[in-house]
Specification:
Length: 321
């Protein structure tokens, strides 16, 4: 299956058909998902709402991939020990490459228009991060010697920012929350940059609500908008938030909201509940994931509203509102 062609042809008219076909393949090929579906007794779903969603914790305890397959790359979530980290066994990186390129460009335009300034020290320290892989790909596709990883050094970032503008490119800053706050406190002005926070204080600072974080960053950088993304180790796609804290999914990704107290039922539109994700880029792991996030659907996307009590706090954008 050609990943780029497959994801490019998915839209609202055929999403359900493609999702049901993906379910049948994954039920047949992924042992742990088949066992879970069998326990639920939902081997023949007819609609999206009938598809069983695999609890995200299974990525910690089981190998979620087709039987007999060999992973091309293993992405690990952030965590204190190997035993606590989710493992996403990716057997075909072309799906991640296609998803991140198509997903980025449908929101921001050609990757080659940008210089990427990445402030992701904790992810670099942990290694095997899907976010680092994504940023690596964007840096490479930007084809600019200015794109790269930087610490929160205001003078260095300011120099790269100014050179970017002089070269007729757009500065795009990717940053973990605490690194962006450190940079913003320096008084640097990044008024013409796109600034995207990937969430998480990683124990380096006091946790803030997303609204508080964005307000501090906007004041520090003298800009009117802070962008955000919703992504995680277990997904190969990202949803982006451009304003009003509302995230928008690419056509091959869909959010469904379940009852936080009865995970097998969905709530009415607009009601708060647990976030289920269908990510059709996850063709070779599991495309149907029951996350530990809370959220609600809106006419233009979805809102994040924290974490389900007692779930692990980890991953991209787990700031609690």
């Amino acid at each position: 299956m050609d990943a780029l062609h497959y994801l490019s042809q998915i839209d609202s008219t055929n999403f359900e058909v493609e999702a049901l076909a993906t379910f049948q393949r994954q039920y047949a090929q992924i042992p742990v998902y088949r066992q879970y579906v069998d326990l639920r007794g939902l081997q023949h779903p007819k609609t999206l709402s009938q598809i069983p969603f695999l609890p995200i914790s299974f990525f910690k305890s089981h190998e979620v991939c087709p039987s007999g397959s060999k992973p091309e790359q293993i992405f690990l979530s952030s965590g204190t020990t190997q035993l606590l980290r989710s493992r996403h066994l990716v057997t075909d990186l072309s799906f991640y490459n296609a998803s991140l390129s198509l997903g980025f460009e449908r929101v921001f335009g050609p990757v080659s228009d940008y210089v990427f300034i990445a402030l992701l020290p904790s992810y670099l320290e942990n290694g095997d991060s899907s976010l680092i892989y994504m940023v690596d790909q964007l840096i490479e596709k930007s084809a600019s010697v200015l794109s790269g990883y930087y610490m929160s050094n205001a003078a260095t970032v300011a120099a790269v920012y100014n050179k970017t503008l002089s070269a007729g490119k757009k500065p795009f800053v990717f940053g973990v929350a605490y690194a962006l706050l450190d940079l913003a406190a320096s008084g640097i002005r990044l008024t013409e940059a796109l600034i995207l926070e990937t969430g998480g204080m990683k124990g380096r600072r006091q946790e803030l609500t997303k609204a508080e974080l964005h307000e501090r960053l906007m004041q520090g950088f003298q800009t009117t908008t802070i962008l955000s993304e919703y992504g995680m180790t277990e997904l190969l796609s990202q949803a982006y938030c451009l304003n009003d804290q509302t995230f928008s999914c690419p056509p091959w990704m869909q959010i469904r909201i379940r009852d936080a107290y009865d995970p097998f039922d969905e709530v009415p539109f607009g009601q708060k509940g647990g976030v289920n994700v269908i990510d059709l880029a996850n063709q070779n792991s599991c495309a149907f994931i029951q996350t530990d996030d809370l959220g609600r659907l809106t006419p233009h996307g979805f809102l994040l509203e924290g974490r389900i009590e007692a779930s692990d706090i980890r991953g991209c954008n787990q700031l609690v509102d």
